[in-house]
């Protein structure tokens, strides 16, 4: 079990220096450095102070140490979204994205179809047009994108996507970032 490596990883993910972590955990920078290099082992009390400063706790820290990170998500693992408008097929591409705070999906729009209007919410939207041409509607503005192009916008406006083609489907990779 590499406690030092895990502490360092958590610290870096928080964009925190060893000095900042030391101040927040009421320990010395040298002690933090020794822990991260596995030159010393912290007491449970010191580890609790460090983890609290990093925004986690002992249970979460040790439960995630043995978890293997999921890297590949197969087509069979996709989750179909059933409450989409007629002519729209949507699948979540990944499950268990909670710590990542993203929701990637694959959307197919039949000819002359559109997604439902999404109201204002926090976050961002990113999309990549895999096939066809689409119109991105943001409040009262319309933006056109075609195969090979991508889009990105803040979710603080009403938005939906439409395929105005009378004969061709459109397919996009859509990622919501919370």
TrEMBL record:
InterPro entries: Cro/C1-type_HTH (IPR001387), Cupin_2 (IPR013096), Lambda_DNA-bd_dom_sf (IPR010982), RmlC-like_jellyroll (IPR014710), RmlC_Cupin_sf (IPR011051), TransReg_Diox_bact_type (IPR050807). It holds the Pfam family Cupin_2. One of its GO terms (cellular component) is cytosol. Coiled coil: none annotated. GO terms for molecular function: DNA binding; DNA-binding transcription factor activity. The keyword DNA-binding applies. Residues 7-61 form the HTH cro/C1-type domain. Keywords: DNA-binding. Gene3D superfamilies: Jelly Rolls, lambda repressor-like DNA-binding domains. It comes from the Bacteria. This is XRE family transcriptional regulator. It comes from Oceanotoga teriensis.
């Amino acid at each position: 079990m590499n406690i030092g490596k895990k502490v360092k990883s958590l610290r870096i993910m928080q964009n925190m220096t060893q000095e900042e972590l030391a101040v927040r955990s009421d320990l010395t920078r040298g002690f933090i450095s020794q822990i991260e290099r596995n030159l010393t082992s912290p007491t449970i009390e010191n580890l609790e102070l460090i983890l609290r400063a990093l925004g986690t706790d002992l249970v979460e820290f040790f439960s995630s140490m043995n978890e293997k990170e999921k890297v590949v998500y197969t087509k069979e693992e996709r989750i179909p979204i059933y409450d989409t408008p007629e002519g729209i097929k949507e699948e979540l591409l990944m499950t268990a994205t909670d710590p990542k705070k993203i929701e990637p999906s694959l959307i197919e729009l039949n000819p002359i179809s559109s997604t439902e209007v999404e109201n204002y919410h926090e976050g961002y939207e990113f999309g990549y047009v895999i096939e066809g041409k689409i119109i991105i509607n943001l409040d009262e503005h319309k933006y056109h994108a075609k195969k090979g192009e991508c889009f990105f916008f803040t979710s603080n406006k009403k938005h939906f996507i439409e395929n105005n083609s009378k004969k061709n489907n459109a397919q996009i990779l859509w990622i919501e970032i919370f």
